[in-house]
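Hi C.,

You asked whether I'd gotten around to modeling the 645-residue construct. I have! Everything is below, sequence then structure, no commentary in between.
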Amino acid sequence: MSNAAPPRKAPDQPWRAEGTPDESPRRTGGRRGGKWWGLLVTAVIVFLLAYIGLNYFGQANQPTISYTEFSRQVTDGNVAKIYSKGDAIQGELKSASANPEGGGKYTKFKTERPAFAADKLWQDLTSHGVTVTARPVVQERSFLSNLLISLIPIVLLVAVWIFFARRIGGGLGGLGGGMFGRKPPPKPVGLRPGTGRTTFADVAGIDEVKGELDDVVDFLEHPDAYRRMGAKLPRGVLLAGPPGTGKTLLARAVAGEAGVPFFSASASEFIEMIVGVGASRVRELFAEARKVAPSIIFIDEIDTIGRMRGGGASMSGHDEREQTLNQILTEMDGFSGSEGVIVIAATNRADILDPALTRPGRFDRVVNVAPPDRGGRESILRIHTREIPLASDVDLTQLARVTPGMTGADLANLANEAALLAVKRKQDQVTGADLSEALEKVQLGAERTLVMPEEDRRRTAFHESGHALLGMLQPGADPVRKITIVPRGRALGVTMSTPEVERYAHSEEYLRGRIIGALGGMAAEDVVYGVVTTGAENDLEQVTNIARGMVARWGMSERVGRLSALPSDAQQAYGLSAAPHTLDVIDAEMRRIVDACYEEACHKLRDHRGRLDALAEALLESETLEETDAYRIAGITRLTKDAEA
């Protein structure tokens, strides 16, 4: 491929060169040698301070006195011994005396005998019994001793520096940068022989996504076949989807299926307070991957550093993020196509990524990883229960039917919660009841031991019965799976409704039915008691979101028309993305839809007051009603729709 960029002459060299000799001289010294300059300068400064301090404090307890003061002390008989070298005299008193010149008391001293002095010093010393020694009274350390003692802080400084460099920076080679967050070069996952690798056998429920990644695996296994045809593999694959759908697992499975090294890193690990560290880590990561190519680099949560870049002034943290992103773009754009390094990234916010990151030539293949369908959920449950002993009454097919919208991570957590329940109950196997209770705990929250007054308990029973009855009566509504007035999480009672089949597009009739069902609790309290309580707060939030979507996003209002007046994140941008008159129309239409649905909910509950009372009385008696019992007590026959039809 003539248009391919030339390969790097050294794996850790962060640039490419064209037209240079193959044996070009390499830089000497450079960045790694520069890392020692900071330590060297600090060591010299510490040494000088220590040496000067030793000399200063070593003489601080030996003040210099005047010769007159010395003569007076000799005359008073207070001098114990002296040592003289030339005209310099140092000595020691018998008892401490006040220094008339420097202040304070002293015992050891030094002075200088004037050359013009004609006193009888020797006679005076002899007459007062002063000992004249041949050794200095104050033994001063030699230059070598001071030098060795001054080196002790240097040794401690180097030891502390090396300790933190190894803890933070990963070795002596990164001393200079290790103190500022440099990390050791990343190591590939799964290179040790005998370690189990994740393969496509461990991935279920997203077969269409695996199909898009099969050619990546095939290229890594048979690169020559693609090169002969002049085909180039996408340099980057972006896995986009909600959290918990298995994006990281897919990336590991691609590497394990192809049997190549796998480098995994989170985008947030590149960012540091010091600008430039992130870009350096990116260079190191790509250099290590090239050394063991073919290999895969996986960057999780890439939206942390890959957000759309904007103009204007920015803070240092933003500069660091942009430098890191620019380095990733440079590394990916520099691939020759024959290096065998593939970058896989994951995000759940693909809409905010920088266009330079998703253009062809970088992440030029975007793979959407959606939550699994019913068959996928069943396959995922079978994988996560492979090592869990299941009782004969466990029906994974039925469990997959009642868990729409749950991701692979949710299902793994469900299986684990059921196993924990079985252990608490000292069982040998996980039963269907364990899985059912675990599902309630995951979806609704843990049970609360809350003692409610009988009036509040009865009101809650009518509230939940209103939800359930309208769900049973409304055509096309999701079937009611369970009704309970046992407090769970923040709710005093819960009505579970899940669709019979997977829904990917919702009609206006279905959405109105959901609004009517959500208003059923408030309508039941209004019909029975004539008042409403704060228990409908969460219901009203759901109603508001559905009504706003119908009017402002999905074109289900004649007055607003067939346009998207508010973005998907309308709760944050509400009032900023449409004209004031349009917002007034949206509010009026939302109120019209909700008021009409509320009137219909109250009308249906009045018409079926007997069924409402029956459900409420049954709930007060047993607290929880399963699907079959709920429909039987309400006297309604549920038409089962086979999803496979």
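If it helps when you're writing up: The chain has a mean pLDDT of 75.

Thanks,
B.
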